[in-house]
Amino acid sequence: MPRPAHAFRFAALALLLCAAAAAQNAGSLWPEGKRAAVSLTFDDARTSQIDTGLPLLEKLGVRATFFVSPNNVGNRLDGWKRAAAQGHEIGNHSMTHPCTGNYAFSRSNALEDYDLERIAQDIDAAQEAIRKLLGATPVSFAYPCGLKFVGRGRNVRSYVPVVAERFLLGRGYMDEAANDPAVFDPAQAMGTPFDDMGPEEALKIVRQAAREGRWVIFVGHDIGPRRFQSVDSAAIEAIAAHAKDPASGIWLDAAGAVARHLGRSRR
Ligand SMILES: [Zn+2]
User: Fold this and answer.
1) Residue-wise pLDDT tens digits, 35-86
2) Distance from residue 63's CA to the centre of ligand 1 (Å)
3) CA of 248 relative to ligand 1 center, distance in Å
4) Do residues 208 and 242 touch, judged by C-beta distance below 8 A?
5) Rounded CA gap, 261 and 257, in Å?
């Protein structure tokens, strides 16, 4: 039994430690024990996402987000139904994937020729098609090519508000930083390129996020061997193994789940 003076000092020290722990917790928007978040997202409903990605993610026990183009879903309809049933997030990536006409594939469907009404209709058509095909109602949207405008010159408008009205999350592409949970705008969250990246390069980004308390939303296309517009399976494996180690402080989950959590914890 400590003497009264010691007991007082002990109690004061305990109080101090509690206050310090509470202050640290109040400063973090992440779940207990986590210092940062990572989401793996894949666009366009490419067949390799089902053929190679789905078994890999299942083996690793990782939940990802697939921003599907409804017109490609039919190529692996049963696979996409399985992905949704396994708890992967199905997101909206628009119906016709309009980008700038500077990309040859988008010349006849260019954002420069769109207005806000037309882009809203395109997004709503995708939402309806995804509901019909997969029974899922997306809460997340990925801007095709990461572009967020319609029109040309003085008539250019941002379509971020169209996305903000409809979704919890709007994800960009080719952005140069991860999201700061305290200040980022969920309607235009930053997306980090993930294609053609080795495991070490991917882990470097994840470790930096842990140091800075950020949310990395990786954006990939095909899944398999490392090449142009394809995510290296080894990079996915490395991130999954790293996140399984509690010491990493990484919360690895679907983008919509992280957005929902931040929506609550930022209030
Ligand atoms: Zn795309």
Assistant:
1) 999 999 999 999 999 999 999 999 999 999 999 999 999 999 999 999 999 9
2) 20
3) 31
4) no
5) 6
Q: What is the pTM of this model?
A: 0.89
Distance 97 CA to ligand 1 centre (A): 6
User: What is the whole-number distance in angstroms between the Cα of residue 137 and the centre of ligand 1?
Assistant: 19
Question: How many A from CA of 43 to the centre of ligand 1?
Answer: 5
Other Cβ atoms within 10 Å of 20 Cβ, number = 10
pLDDT, tens digit, for every residue of 208-222?
999 999 999 999 999
What is the sign of the dihedral through the CA atoms of 113, 71, 68 and 53?
Answer: negative
pLDDT tens profile 129-155 = 999 999 999 999 999 999 999 999 999
Q: Are 67 and 217 in contact (CB under 8 A)?
A: no
